[in-house]
Amino acid sequence: MLLTVTSRNVLLPDFDLPRPATIDVDLRTGKIIGVRLWYVGDEACKESGDPHFIDAGDKVVLPGLVDAHVHLEEPGNQDWEGFWTGTQAAAAGGVTALIDMPVDSSPPTTTPKNLDIKRRSARGQCWVDVGFWGGAIPQNQAELGPLLSAGVRGFKCFLIDTGIEEFPRVSESDLHAHMSHLQNSVMIFHAELQTTSSPARRRLDPRSYQEFLSSRPKEFEVDAISLINRLQAMYPSVSCHIAHLSAAAALPIIRAVKDRGSKLSVETCLHYLCLSAEDIPDGATEYKCTPPIREDSNRNHLWDALVDGTIDCVVSDHSPCLIEMKGLENGDFMEAWGGVSSLGLGLSLLWTEGRKRGISLGQIIRWMSIKNAELAGLSGTKGQLKVGYDGDLVIWDPEPEFKVSKEHLYFKNKLTPYEGMTLRGLVHKTFVRGRLAYDLARQDGFTGLQPSGELL
Predict the structure, then answer these.
(1) C-alpha distances in Å from residue 171, one per residue of 125, 126, 345
(2) Could you read off the pLDDT of 397-418 as tens digits, one per residue?
(3) I need a surface site. Which of 124, 148, 191, 426 has the fewest CB within 10 A?
């Protein structure tokens, strides 16, 4: 049995703009088996009467997005988020594969046993495909090889205190022990480093966003990335990846490392590209994240670095918590939990902001699909509409505008700094391996459907 999707606007590999095409997916294998470079809709669709023949007309058919940085937080903190709600939010936003971070679940994904617990929690709950990063913490270097064998996509570590007892930061000596155990794998760094030379800052007004911003200065990121540069030179077989780059001041170091041919990649986040420190009200702790959202001039430099390839990819870093953990009534940035919730809004956010800057749809898919798939070791199956790849497709209309409200949010705790913002672009249908995972026309988008996502 085939799923056939045809449109006058299909974004194919190596094209910045959509073109007419028809995609055939074998529903037995979930794989794309044909890409025809023409549109076969209109009368063909009417005559077919086949529910597996989808004529998207002028709507755009995109490869499913891949989000390589998501905190689903189950098991242990499933009242913050969970596999069911988190993957529904992903599907509603055109994300067909995501990689879960190891840090916020309990237990964290730092041993094969803990990974198995997480996998058992996820089974039967996933509306999109889900993979897992492992965690690198002090003294668990002996677990890295077994974790890789058990299926993690690579490892995440923190260079600054996490505030989570089960997931402490690593020291430079810890990293030597870890990276000497890794060959041809990925180490992802939360790249903030508070050194003894970092300036001490007096706490003044905890409601002031500028005070919070000054407590996580750009020097934290610059110092951390300088350390990563040194480690990369010592362990050249390890692919080093900088998570959630916020500080444009680190870009010259990154460019120098990349010019050397080192295995370094860099992501930034939706909130660093779409929000600016100048616009954040005091006490608005829904904006708190680490590293922090910086000034508009910094944001422009991040966009420039995306365009020139210094930054490789864009992720959500969807990191929710219980609403009360944000302390909205007090607005204390120093005490509030850090993390921005955005899963499901990413394509609209980047399209809305990118259009102002002359960004093409092809560039957005490169940053949100192709490069994230490469990072997670999925570049042979995800992120492109090619024969042999998974039949992950999104039918999307780039033109409609909508104001973000809670009804657009499928994640569990419906608090986001984007509420009230007017965005452009709506996902109409999402297919995962050829199976319908989200349909805007259905009540709540999911009525009558079943989750069919797989664990990667």
Answers:
(1) 36, 35, 35
(2) 999 999 999 999 999 999 999 9
(3) 124
Residues in contact with 54: Cβ distance below 8 Å, sequence separation at least 6, in sequence order = 3, 4, 5, 6, 395, 429
Distance of CA 373 to the CA centre of its chain: 11
How far is residue 261's CA from residue 359's CA, in Å, rounded to a whole number? 27
pLDDT at 42 over 90: no
pLDDT at residue 445 above 80? yes
Q: How far apart are the first and last CA of the chain?
A: 24
